[in-house]
Amino acid sequence: MTEYKLELKDVTKVFESGRDKKTTAISNINMKIGDHRFVSIIGPSGCGKSTLFNIISGLMQTGTGEIRVNGKSVNGMAGTVGYMLQKDLLLPWRNIVDNVILGMELKGVSKKEAKEAAIPLLEKYGLGGFEQSYPPQLSGGMRQRAALLRTILYDRDIILLDEPFGALDAQTRSVMQEWLLDLWGDFQKTILFITHDIDEAIYLSDEVYIMSARPGEIKEHMSLVGNNQIGRIRTLYPY
Question: Are both 44 and 92 inside the same structural domain?
């Protein structure tokens, strides 16, 4: 059994636009992430955090380097991880329960079986009574709950969350952070979490990776378990 759930080895991505014009988005990214870890990635806008997630998820081809999940190379393979963007991307013509089961349906689970699995979770995680509601009828926080449950029910060991609370007000964001930690504890997933908020990263995470400005490189990697690294993080990430 491999020691790491997810490994990135020397991952670099260069975009070409026009004749002889190249932009290096990320350069020589190396990460080793264990099972059931909550890992935040912080860095200035434009440093390549979302590009990195697109590569890990298989939505974008790796330029050079390797992505390994459970020791197996998955370069360019979609569907190996769960991935949620900042926008909830709920389908407005489907009610909440039908949105939550969408990933299960795409995997071939029958609608009846998918609903039987989803409805108890909607009740447990704060969406009970809203199963038949439609996305425009829900608050931002409620829609994010539905989107996160949809991602969890896609049933992948690794979940990528790209600033899922960035558009929420401070009070709702605080509630959602607690809610996410409960969900993480219950489902035992490995979570990679992009945020610009240092306090959010420190509160949620076991580990933090700090990226440099473009081309994005790993500037620092630190464990937060049993360590007070707040001052050092603020020094390394003064944005």
Answer: no
pTM: 0.91
- Give per-residue pLDDT as tens, 209-232: 999 998 999 999 988 866 666 666
Q: Which two tokens stand for residue 154?
A: 């896609």
- Which residues 6+ apart lie within 8 Å of 124 measured at CB? none
Q: Which residues contact 195 (CB under 8 A, 6 or more apart)?
A: 40, 41, 42, 163, 165, 166, 201
**Model confidence pLDDT, tens digit, residues 85-97:** 888 899 999 999 9
User: Tokens at residue 226, please?
Assistant: 């049993």
Tell me whether residue 92 is in a domain.
yes
| Domain assignment of residue 90, given as a range | 82-155
- Measured from the Cβ of residue 19, the count of other Cβ atoms closer than 10 Å reads 5
Query: What total of structural domains would you count in the chain?
Result: 2
